[in-house]
Amino acid sequence: MDVAVKQATDVDIIIVGGGAIGATLALSLDRLNYRVILIELRKPVFSSSSPERVIALNAGSRMHFERLGLWDAIAAAGTGLIRHIVVAEPGNQGRVDMDAAQAVRPLDALGYVVEMGPLLEPVYHQLESSSVAMYLPASVQALHLEDDCIAVDLLQDDKKTRLRASLLVGADGTNSQIRRMADINTHGWDYNRFGIVASVRCERAHTETAYECFRSSGPLAFLPLSDGRYSIVWAVQPGEASQLLSMNDDEFLVALQRAAGDELLNSTGVIVETSSRASFPLELTFANRFADSRVVLAGNAAHTVHPVAGQGMNLGLRDVEVLVEELDSELGHRDPGQSILMQAYAERRRLDSLFVAGFTEAMVDGFGGSLPGLKWLRGRGMDTMESWPSLKDMLLLHAAGLSQADDGVVNQSVREARA
Ligand SMILES: Cc1cc2nc3c(=O)[nH]c(=O)nc-3n(C[C@H](O)[C@H](O)[C@H](O)COP(=O)(O)OP(=O)(O)OC[C@H]3O[C@@H](n4cnc5c(N)ncnc54)[C@H](O)[C@@H]3O)c2cc1C
After folding, report:
1. Has residue 113 got a pLDDT over 80?
2. What is the spatial distance between Cα 57 and Cα 112, in angstroms, rounded to a whole number?
3. How is domain 13-187+283-418 classified at the CATH fold level?
4. 341: left (phi > 0), else alpha (psi -120 to 50), else beta?
5. Which protein residue has the closest C-alpha to ligand 1 atom 41?
6. SS3 136
7. How close is the Cα of 21 to the center of ligand 1, in Å?
8. Ligand 1 binding pocket mutation candidate from 41, 81, 191 (most atoms within 8 A of CB)
9. Is the shortest distance between the CB of 16 and ligand 1 below 6 Å?
10. Where does residue 189 rank: exposed (0-12), middle (13-18), buried (19+ CB within 10 A)?
């Protein structure tokens, strides 16, 4: 599908980056009658890829898409439901079982597994019929802070244009150019791991169960797809990643089965088929500031977390919710870039992002160690979680995106869902 675009030069808000975060933010702000420009480096691709690039959305993110009137179209493209999650370590007796029906407020699912291309297609479809002006493919050459606005030099088809807005949102992903141009440094580290992704078919169709297998060399997740297969994300060291990528399918299946362990295979049956493989570098990147003069960061541009807990996009969509809440005010409509609003956004988002980054780190670190006794301790830890309902409830609510470290983040519909 070709995206039909409208163009403008002076607006209220410019968003750089048209991934899920930038594009849904543009739609949400358009609904608040802001004049919005969306700049995207690449022409979006909506077709299914091989291997599928999938995302597990939680209940909070589903509500976000429902509010935008997009969920039915996303679900129609095929959604794998996660009704159960099993967290286990091969060779360890302890395990945690989570079930949607056991949540404090029963949920129809703990997660929804969707493909990235089909997720973006309805978003862009709505953007075409909105008032959002789009420049794509296009790139940003420079930023200039002026008296009461921010100016962006845009390059498209060898033509330079100066755009102006009260607020600039950097939603341009992990290596955010806007973050660099705004002189915002980051904290974080490269895990020296790659995530191998593939889609696999097991002997038995899944029972809407996701598995998180923690191995000392890195976690391996199985997410149920809508067609009965699983999408896997397997964190491995760089040497192992290049070996796995160069193996033929049969060799890869043998290696994957060894990593998954007998307990998982007892539930799923033998893994009989794999798609081609792809890999992603795994890193933690956390911006020192989420807001600066007339610039804010959202999504991976603000925080990139390890995909082990499947939280990156869920976290980014909560950024969108909070930014929209801050801008849905008289103050916002007077000047959306004013610092009091942007600092409020940054403050509200920092705690939730730090919580998710810390929680994810604890999972990676806690299962990464191979010191004597640590495996036993992890087994007991998982047993404790199983027998301590309030702790499990907290984990369930968090997995579902219905519990934020910052209570102010919980928006109206989430509050309704909890009531
Ligand atoms: C293997 C893997 C599995 C994952 N699984 C999950 C999961 O199950 N659940 C979950 O919630 N999250 C998951 N994540 C994380 C999730 O994919 C990201 O958090 C999410 O996609 C971030 O969205 P974004 O829009 O902020 O960034 P991106 O998706 O990176 O989008 C950024 C956009 O900006 C554009 N861009 C970049 N530079 C420029 C520029 N200079 N000018 C203009 N445009 C630019 C890019 O082309 C892109 O379209 C996973 C990540 C990985 C790697």
Report:
1. yes
2. 5
3. FAD/NAD(P)-binding domain (3.50.50)
4. alpha
5. 177
6. coil
7. 8
8. 41
9. yes
10. exposed
The residue contributing the CA closest to ligand 1 atom 14 is 312
Residue with tokens 């802001």: 34
For ligand 1, whether the C-beta of 111 sits within 6 Å is: no
Q: Is residue 388 scored above 90 in pLDDT?
A: no
Taking the CA of residue 177 as reference, the ligand 1 atom at the shortest distance is 41
- Coil, strand or helix: which one is 140? strand
Instruction: Verify whether ligand 1 is closer than 6 Å to residue 60 (CB atom).
Output: no
- The span from the CA of 256 to the CA of 280, in Å, is 17
pLDDT mean over 163-173: 97
140 CB near ligand 1 (under 6 Å): yes
Domain borders along the chain are 13-187+283-418
Comparing 108-122, 157-171, 182-196, the range with the smallest average pLDDT is 182-196
Lowest mean pLDDT across 14-23, 77-86, 245-254, 374-383 = 374-383
Identity of the amino acid at 98: M
| CA 19–ligand 1 middle distance (angstroms) | 6
What average pLDDT does this structure show over 156-181?
97
Tell me, using a 6 A CB cutoff, whether residue 353 lines ligand 1.
Answer: no
- Res. 404: pLDDT tops 50: no
What CA dihedral angle connects 390, 395, 398 and 403, to 10 degrees?
20
pTM of the model: 0.89
The distance from CA 52 to its chain's CA centroid, rounded to whole angstroms, is 15
Mean of the per-residue pLDDT values of the chain: 86
Rounded CA gap, 49 and 52, in Å? Answer: 5
Q: Compute the distance from residue 383 Cα to the ligand 1 centre, in Å.
A: 35
